[in-house]
Design brief:
The structure holds 2 protein chains of 2 kinds. Helix content of chain A is about 60%, strand content about 5%. Chain A is mainly α. Chain A has one domain (about 1-55): lambda repressor-like DNA-binding domains (434 Repressor (Amino-terminal Domain)). The longest helix of chain A is centred in the last third of the chain and has 11 residues, at about 40-50. The radius of gyration of chain A is 11 Å and the shape is globular. The two termini of chain A are about 15 Å apart. By secondary structure, chain B is mainly alpha-helical. Chain B folds into 2 domains: about 1-70; about 75-135, no CATH class. Chain B contains 6 helices and no strands. Chain B has helices at about 5-35, 40-50, 50-70, 70-110, 115-120, 125-135. Classes of the chains: A mainly alpha, B mainly alpha.
């Protein structure tokens, strides 16, 4: 699934480690999310959406809309 | 890796290393006791099972780590690698088992006892186990 994590992170000038700390996950997880190798669980997707103050569907794109 | 900051992984390693140390100690101790005293019967069974206990504990420790790991992606990687390990082990043991049951008896024991090697493995007769046991050591 495509997502805008890398763009949103760059806009805030955060490193992968910064984002990992804020979401309380590993840096590996951020990397897997950004490269589209791993789709987050619903709870983690909500945490990401809240952190960036945007709805889930504006961050993640399942290609159906 | 996330080793440095991950408390669940730290706890896993803190449990894993001493348990493996116990395992190595058990292997050496049990081998020494068998060489020195050649125990038989229930004592031999109990002694033979001793090194298995820390390994069973390792499996439990891996399970505890899996339940304590808070990072869902790391958890996914762990479950996948455990499945690979279990699957490969099962595949190897399946092939090995059938080779042993059907091919092992004819090639290894041309004039051995008439019972199949599968039942001989499960219930070794005192004479055959003594013969192979002494011969191996």
């Amino acid at each position: 699934m495509k997502n805008r994590l890398k763009i949103l992170r760059a806009e805030r000038d955060w490193s992968q480690a910064d984002l990992a700390d804020r979401l309380e996950v590993s840096r590996q997880t951020i990397n897997a999310l950004e490269t589209g190798k791993y789709d987050p669980s619903l709870p983690l997707a909500f945490r990401i959406a809240r952190l960036f103050g945007q709805p889930i569907e504006s961050i993640f794109d399942d290609g159906q809309a | 890796m996330t080793t440095a900051k991950n408390p669940a992984r730290k706890r896993y390693i803190a449990r894993f290393i001493p348990t493996m140390a116990v395992y190595v100690a058990a292997i050496f101790t049990v081998s020494w006791v068998f060489n020195r005293y050649e125990p038989t019967g229930p004592i031999a069974w109990g002694l033979a099972l001793l090194p298995a206990l820390p390994l069973l504990a390792i499996i439990a420790i891996m399970g505890v780590y899996l339940s304590e790991e808070g990072d869902e992606f790391i958890r996914k990687i762990l479950v996948e690698s455990m499945l690979w390990g279990v699957g490969l082990t099962l595949a190897i043991m399946t092939v090995w088992g059938f080779l042993e049951i059907y091919a092992g008896r004819r090639s290894c024991r041309p004039s051995g006892p008439s019972r199949s090697s599968a039942s001989a493995w499960a219930w070794p007769s005192p004479s055959s186990s003594a013969a192979t046991g002494r011969g191996a050591r």
